[in-house]
Amino acid sequence: MPTPLPAAAPRPHPLHALRATAFAIGALLLLVGVGVLLHQPLLIPPLAASAALVHGAPGLPISQPRNLVGGQLLSTAIGFGTLAVTGSTGWGAAIAAGLSLGVMMLTHLSHSPAAATAVIVVLQAPHPVPFLPLLALATALLVAIGLLPGRIGGHPVRYPVAW
Questions:
Q1: pTM for the full model?
Q2: What is the per-residue pLDDT for 149?
């Protein structure tokens, strides 16, 4: 007998959705602004997905700071390792994403957008010296901005739920 599907989550209150949207936009604009100041791109697509998780689903385990920062940095390291072995290929990118998933699961650092970061590393082959510190800075900024809604924005879930 198949397991019944869980009931759908209720729709968020429109003000909650508006707050989450505003804080996510603010966080991403901050990444763009810091990137402009540093003359380096700080906003990459997986970080937009990370911001969506932090502000749209702050209570999920994959949204917590340990998972966001740890998953992104771990997947980046896997991306650079895969790049060294396979070169910048679609095959290597697919392997890096899959390896990232498995290693994040084993280390309890699951953060799904991070698998896309591994793909970006393999396909774009950025230099590790600017990329890793910039990614660490970007994830720290996302966590810092994630702290604000529960303190000043009336968010129903206080972020983080766990460090």
A1: 0.90
A2: 83
